[in-house]
Amino acid sequence: MTAPNNSTGKESTAHKELKGTVKERLVSLTENLQFAWFAGHAVVLLCSFLYLFSFNRIVYRIAYLGVLHSFGIIIYQQYYQGNKTGSTSGNASSTHTNGASNFSLNSLINDENVLYFVLAAMWLLTSIFSMSLVPYSLFSLFHVLKYLQNVLLPVVFGISKENNNTVATVAKFTHTYNERCMYWVGTSEIVIVVLLFLRALLWYPSSWIVLITDLLFLKLRYENSKYTKAAFSQCRVRLDGIISHPSIPPQIKSAYNLAKTKLIEISHYQLGRVDEPEKKAM
């Protein structure tokens, strides 16, 4: 699979001849939206790492400000500038060329950039839920690495995978684990909704509102993302294996089968209409 693609423009390649000083090339690079998009993801990645060791509330909030910043740039380009952009998570249901004429509720609820932006806004404004950072930090990890190897290092320093072993290793890592990352994201989003359900049962503040919002998000992702569908399939296979064990009481097996049947029925209802067949992101 290809990497998550949330870039704001075409990635640059290494230049044979670098013009100007390092400072001049860096300043020139920072003058476009793509660098601002990269900076947002860098903030998310850094704050997610710091939060892992500190559980600082301010760091958590800053991480989500970084998410809103980077995703907001993509949405701005899609719906205001009308630029073509690929999907964030690498499983684009379409490549957008949205202008005012294509701006509609249907386009919004089927646009994963919009969905992730709205979800991030919810996480920013509600009580802290640490697990929610996992999908965004995975996105940011690959976006940051790809920007470094394809744009920042070659354009500013003349370093690329052709002349540097470290960059070549990073390029190999992103190429190898890109698609696997998307399955990890889908799985983490299922785990998140399960944990939110348990929080709702314990009546955490705003827990039911958060749960319902996340369920709607996950339903739309299921409709538009092959990775989310694959994550659900893998979870079902694993749970089927566990529940089929002879030591599991018949009552639990019956409840599980009923719940599974209901979820399958719900999956047939479409919240959003997909206009184009799913295809790989560029």
From TrEMBL:
On whether Transmembrane is a keyword of this UniProt record, the answer is yes
The answer to whether keyword tRNA-binding applies is: no
Pfam families in the cross-refs: TMEM33_Pom33
Keywords recorded for this protein, A-Z: Membrane, Transmembrane, Transmembrane helix
Query: InterPro entries of this UniProt entry?
Result: PER33/POM33_regulator, TMEM33/Pom33
Q: Give the subcellular location.
A: Membrane
Cellular component per GO, a single term: membrane
Which residue windows are transmembrane per the record?
35-55, 62-80, 114-139
UniProt GO BP: endoplasmic reticulum tubular network organization; membrane organization
Q: How does it sit in the membrane?
A: Multi-pass membrane protein
Q: Highest taxon of the source?
A: Eukaryota
Family the entry assigns: Belongs to the PER33/POM33 family.
Could you tell me what this protein is called? Nucleoporin POM33
